[in-house]
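Researcher: Let's try something more involved. This one mixes different molecule types, so please make sure each is placed in the same coordinate frame as the others.
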Amino acid sequence: MEPIDIAKASKEAFEASQAVRHNERVDALSKIKDALRHNKATILEANKLDVQAAAEEVNAGRLSAPLLKRLDLTRSDKWDSMLQGISDVAALPDPNGKVSYASELDDGLRLHRVSCPIGVLLVIFESRPEVVVNIAALAIKSGNAAILKGGKESLKTTTALSDAIRSALSQTSLDKNYIQTVHSRGEISSLLELDKYIDLVIPRGSNALVSSIQQNSRIPVMGHADGLCTVFLDATANKEKAIRVVLDSKIDYPAACNAAEILLLHTDLPKEIWTSVATALLSHGVQLRCDAPSLALLASDPSVASLPTFSTHVLEANPSSDFTTEFLDTILAVHTTPSLSSAVSFINSHSSHHTDSIVTESESSASIFCRTVDSAGTFVNASTRFADGFRYGFGTEVGISTGRIHARGPVGLEGLVIYKYVLRSEGSAGHIVSEFGVGEGKRAFKHAPLGSDSIPAGFDIV
Amino acid sequence: MEPIDIAKASKEAFEASQAVRHNERVDALSKIKDALRHNKATILEANKLDVQAAAEEVNAGRLSAPLLKRLDLTRSDKWDSMLQGISDVAALPDPNGKVSYASELDDGLRLHRVSCPIGVLLVIFESRPEVVVNIAALAIKSGNAAILKGGKESLKTTTALSDAIRSALSQTSLDKNYIQTVHSRGEISSLLELDKYIDLVIPRGSNALVSSIQQNSRIPVMGHADGLCTVFLDATANKEKAIRVVLDSKIDYPAACNAAEILLLHTDLPKEIWTSVATALLSHGVQLRCDAPSLALLASDPSVASLPTFSTHVLEANPSSDFTTEFLDTILAVHTTPSLSSAVSFINSHSSHHTDSIVTESESSASIFCRTVDSAGTFVNASTRFADGFRYGFGTEVGISTGRIHARGPVGLEGLVIYKYVLRSEGSAGHIVSEFGVGEGKRAFKHAPLGSDSIPAGFDIV
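Model: All components are placed in one shared frame. Result:
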């Protein structure tokens, strides 16, 4: 099919699905799980071919070894986790049909704002083929149709997974085109122009992938390009908290988007706290790229300067690049700043508005930091690594957004729904606006709040 | 200033304002009202010059007369309404600091999702100069900075209004650059590229204005280009409701985006209901552009065919244009459809996803219509004209959105906020993620819901 036909088929499948009840969606997820189990041999055979081809590319130096790991569906418990993930998503509460505003505008005229699916999602990801299953489950659960594109090195696997999903869908009330896959970059370029049919793009992958999509589509994009997180050690930072929070933020998983890349030091922070933090980081192999004041403090402390890694791991920062780079590695840029407000300004102008943390014993500093740092997550005495949908308790994570509208920070199923207004007149003659207003024969609106747990009659087919 | 400097100054003013308390924002609104009162003579003098210049353009046939009305600040109670609007916005509840998710992740580790401003708004409008005041009030109330551009014909007025606003701001905790105005299309073109500094574009005006902005910016746009609303008369429609709802939807204010442009008739609708609806519309001067079946029914009814306006106001519809045109006039396109599901498909493919209404006595039809019509408003036995922020009870209206993310339908102050996650550790050693998980020494997350009315300590400066 041409991209335009794929997009139209998705929109049609979405529209046709709007009368499908939640229990039927859950049933579809169960059928998909069965179909994957049933087709396990075929899928793993396809995966084997992808892995073999990728292994050759790795040997030839054209692909990285970690990519090979991500591709392989037989590694550790990946297959079982993938299937369990379907059940986990199925068991989450339905994000649709939730009433967030309910008002009686007039006697017998009731308005409800009810959550409902967005429409057609275009999800673009890289090497992990199981993302197909993960996203299909999220889309079906939330009532959105989806078009998926994986990396070219996982083509055979994603095709086999997608075939199993579509065969399962054909036994349900959902159209099999509810979940479609595309394979080429050309198709993606075309789809990114079809804002009439596609409602939201979710890129999951490298900075380059996300940036390129953000630059090339008018369709709203949910995601993040950079994860440039900061930990700020305030003047009143507690030493143990400082060491623990900085270490965890940096080394728990340096390649994650919620790992810290920048350490800010208040000039009034006791020198001994900084040297202890630095010593702990160095003992874990972290390279420190320091501004002049923070470097001078380390160099003047014999217990640090005498460390064997001092010369290799304590370097002068390049101010024009080190404070705007997502290292994704055991590297930390260190900057000294004279006040809380200068720290906040530095973060607002350098961070990617993802997650930033302050270590402080001052209630006032904590409060001002949380209020004035303009990021999706503002933390106090806690590792930036907590910024995650599962850790936040959402049960799943669609992605992490650094955008300012719709959804921000870790996004759960709620990020895949919007709402519509349902207005129902029970009046004997219907309701018309020309009867409202001031003057003879006109009446005023009542605007009486209704219990927000009342699902409107119009949604009883959910 | 160059556009880049305007945008940067806005972002700086926004960031600096995040510690400003709500009562100071309300106070700023009061100071703006005073400044406008104080500068009334200057402002009306500027407005007089704009009106005189526009009158010459109208006389020369280069501007439309209604534009002249919209420009004139001295007409009826426009000035007083403008000032009253500031007080009305000031009196609304603060949309910020609302907790929508609160969970104790672990003992002493509390997560709150708290509403907060989006950032910098770029608002582009056309001839009504009082929109400057209206938007400035909404922006200040909601904590967003704003850059405003009005039509060139209102330049002197908007400049005078803006000067008064900025002089008032200079006596408050807010930076005077919190509200800025620009005047040229060239500046707008440049600003639309500055997605680093501008977070949301709100165009208020013609279809052409909105479409052009949607096509030319990567910054999220909130608004609607078309308002193509439909009323569907189901087979079971009640005659009185049908006449009242169709008439009100069409003639209450034909130039509004929530006026109906399309009437759909179920083929099983009693002929007598359709001829009565048509007669009522014709008696109000509405032109009907009918498909063949609906036209045949009217032509075959002597009481309609004998009406003096039958030949001039009952026309054959042009199927390639009349069902996709926002007439904004006393014209209604009429289409016959054999079923509820065909009506829904017709609406989903022809309407602008704004507001659509069904007239029916069938609970099942009402329910399926509301669920499957993919529009911001789905109404039952009520006029499409109810789709309005004031009628919905929001106290104000930022605009009406036909987008599928963030805000949909009439948008109140809530549409100008997003949220951030505030995570605070009260633990004696801070909180780090490496202590959570499975295995020796690891613990599980608690994820205990917290009362959603608890404002986190980090937000006590609100």
